[in-house]
Design brief:
The protein is α+β, with helices and mostly antiparallel strands. About 15% of the residues lie in helices and about 25% in strands. It has three helices and ten strands.
């Protein structure tokens, strides 16, 4: 595969998209937060999307060829997510996620899945997550939460949320940490 390179004179922005911000520059409804509230760089566009209720890495560029290569599922650029789920995640669920999960639109491709904690990742500041979310996730006193790192090579609509729900662990918080070689670290 050809390496992803920015054309000379073009711009690339790695943006940590907050919760409840659209990954576009114009709102769908009045009052919605958009990229325009955070990025003042005319001519750049998001390479791919990130759900309104998801957080994390969004790449913006004015390099159309690079934008296409990043966003196009044909190039199978891996994406790594940090996922806070409801419940105490078990190995059986991680094994199913790694083999592929049957969803209503077919079997997902195999993924890399592992538990995540502050002890094993430098960007993961505490076992509560990498940074506080505003507003915080809903907490249920009798139900614990756990975190996993999920690396996928496809990008179906709301795929990570549907995968964790299919193995019995609904997603509470979803953060995209990495796209290809680009990461939020630092």
């Amino acid at each position: 595969a050809q390496p992803l390179q920015l054309q000379p004179g073009k711009r690339l922005i790695l943006f940590n998209k907050p919760y409840e911000v659209l990954s576009q520059f114009t709102p769908d409804q009045p009052g919605q937060a958009t990229l325009a509230d955070y990025v003042n760089c005319p001519g750049v566009y998001a390479a791919g999307r990130l759900d309104y209720t998801s957080e994390g890495l969004l790449i913006l560029t004015d390099d159309g060829a690079l934008q296409h290569r990043i966003a196009d599922p044909e190039h199978k650029l891996p994406k790594t997510y940090w996922v806070q789920v409801e419940g105490e995640l078990d190995q059986a669920a991680l094994d199913v996620l790694a083999r592929g999960v049957q969803l209503n639109d077919g079997l997902t491709k195999p993924a890399q899945a592992r538990r995540l904690s502050a002890a094993d990742h430098p960007g993961f500041e505490t076992d509560e997550g990498p940074w506080p979310r505003d507003p915080p996730i809903r907490q249920r006193a009798q139900i614990p939460t756990s975190w996993l790192e999920l690396r996928i090579h496809e990008g179906r609509n709301r795929q990570v949320r549907r995968m964790t729900a299919a193995v019995g662990y609904p997603t509470l918080r979803l953060i995209r940490w990495r796209i290809g070689d680009w990461t939020l670290e630092g």
